User: Fold these one by one.
Assistant:
Number 1:
Amino acid sequence: MAFGLQREELQHWKAAVEDGEIAFLTHFWYDPRFPDVKTVTKVGCSNLSKLEAWGRRYGLKKEWIDHHNGYPHFDLMGTKQSEILKSENKMDQLEKLIKKGRNH
């Protein structure tokens, strides 16, 4: 279950994915299978070979691509999430959520 996400952010991510860009979307998340995980980053791209190549750079397998609702993406969690966001200069997405979480 996703939350802490504005409709505009989701629409921007979907448009970027549809345009074949490597797009990042980080949000609060709850799944009972991962009780210690509070956030997830979805890294999507409609160009599957581009997404697969991007994932290989970080040791992600193409079998891990989620094709939910026609928006192929990797779900990044935990230390892998932080590691990749730092490498991609996208840590601001995670830091924004952490600040928001402290204020509520």
Note: The chain has one domain: 2-102.
Number 2:
Amino acid sequence: MGMELEQYEILLRDLYNQMTRVAYSKVRNKSDAHDVVQEAWVRILSKQDTLREESKLTAWAKTITANVAYNVNRRNGKSSTGWFEPQEPSSSSPTEAELLLEISELLGALDPRSRTMMLYKFYYGFKDQEIADAMNLPLGTVKARIHRSRERLKHWI
């Protein structure tokens, strides 16, 4: 049962991340994107009985997310690329906002302790020993967790 729950959580987290990417690509604002995803989840949960094929959940959720984003843009008076309208080709390098959103999503997928260690190490510039002292953990544990977290992040990219 525990493994099934863990797999379900992984699937939901992946779906959430995909929905966030769709929302961000439409509204181009991190805060609005998170609002769009929240509203989309509410719609998905309230209309889950209308989903005919469970295998199409991801596509269905992304479509709902895009439609909610379109409505948010319309409400805010922003022009946006609609779900079925062709998008302008984007430049080959992502914007800073897109990179920050991606980093935030990746860090959010880590367990809280590993996320804290990664932030201490790479954002705040703490040495491994300082992290070990701050978190009251052995130095070897900190080094191993940082290494495993980096490998996990590399795999996800």
Note: The longest helix spans residues 2-27.
Number 3:
Amino acid sequence: MKKKICGMREVQNVKDVLEYNPDYMGFIFYEKSSRFVGKDQMQELIKLNFGETERVGVFVNESFDKILEYADLGFFDIVQLHGNEIPEQVEKLKAEGLEVIKVFSVGDDFDVSELKAYKKADYYLFDTKGKLPGGNGEKFDWSVLNSAAINKPFFLSGGLDENDTNIDKSQFKNLYGLDFNSKLELEPGFKDVIKVQEVLGT
């Protein structure tokens, strides 16, 4: 099971988390987020040795040009679209050679049929629908995924903590990875390294 630690921003905290070799580390380039990482800050962060940890750039309804600018600056390996981006945005980014994670916010009104339009994405990510686009710290009803017939590898997100590392992968078809954020934090953007160690099992 792949593990993603998202919402990172502080240099020393990033270095500490990298000691435990997460598969993915997410950086949020959305200014309204309490975990926002600015351009100057990211230029310092990319000087660190990420080893085999892939960096994920998280965007919310961002312009195609800005995403490409950040890609050219080497800010991320994979782009995560966490807003209401149209399918054509995914297709344009793919045409530029980028890997794409498309996020879907799951609530009582979740419509499985909307996945079909985003079939060009490399991965899906299912998060809890809330007031904010991510980092709400709440789980959604996972049973929705069992009836969704998801035919693409996906990340499970939304209120995951150190007690969720033993999720049975066979419980969900095509479950690829777990995405951890707010439940591992001491404060927004600053992870509790002890909890990270529990999650990554090293």
Note: The chain has a mean pLDDT of 92.
Number 4:
Amino acid sequence: MFPTACRLAAKPPGFFKRSAEEFSRLSRIAWNTEALSTPTKPYHLLNFEDESSVASCKTMADRAVGGFSTASIDYVPAEPSTNTPAHARFHGTISTKLPDNWRVERTGYAAFRNQDRGLWLFGRLYWDLDPYTYLALRVKSDGRRYTVNIQTDTIVETDIHQHRLYTRHHHVRDSEASSSYDPLSPYSSPEAAESPEIAEEKYPTGIPEALSDVPPPSTIMSSMSATTSGSTGWETILLPFNAFVRTNHGLVAEPQTSIIRQRVKSVGIGLTDRVEGPYDLRIHRIWATNGMSEGEIEEERRICGTAALPVDEGVRRNWVAPNEDEPQKQEKPEGKAKGLKGLRDEWD
């Protein structure tokens, strides 16, 4: 396949541009003294309104081991008439057909992530997400059970921190999803129903809340209980960084460790539900945040409609208690002497 002129124009930034952008970002932080307080503005990781962000992503599927699943990520221009922003379309087909290779026992997966961010003047470039609490994603889902993947600079390079992407359109299997099969459900299949032996191997201490098929109450999903009627299909999902689960080759790794937020290498989304058929996920942006700010709410309401998240009160007040918004005025004591005599009176 030969690169087209459009694809070449949308190529990822080079070494000097990466260095200039990182210098600019760090300069803004220093100038605004943002490092001395909790950030209230979003830190965009992948902004798919920019076609170069789509070009900087890579796809993966079981075709690498001889499988038949497909994965593509394309840039979709904006449609102002429907308030649809420019975004990336992650789509393809999942197949659980096994190749003619006795070494391959399971297929049926597809994923995408950003490519390594490369080098800049001071070494390898990482995202420093330490000041942030949530990973935010604005998506339009077809309801399939996607997983968000974060990879950091760790000793074990194959370690990935994962969290299920719960949306308002999320299809839930039966309560015993790991071992049951509903023949009437279009999102369930004999191949997707895992045997107890496989489930025990993947989750030796039980299925973690963040990877469960049912959204846990501890996960911040304020739009989960709302109806989907009247919405645009777009929604913003907030996933707490401390809720991600460390995995290795699809198995939960022990002991569990927190994400090294200072050295994040890549962010992506995968589909491993092993349900035969097409999938289609639209992604507008992926960013780190401490909550929805007033500056973001206009875009949030325009794109997400009735599914828009509210402004986070903590972000609005910069995490100052309501009774501390205004500094208390100290009343001057009456009859207090001035100068050295007044200072002597205070010590006495």
Note: The chain has a mean pLDDT of 78.
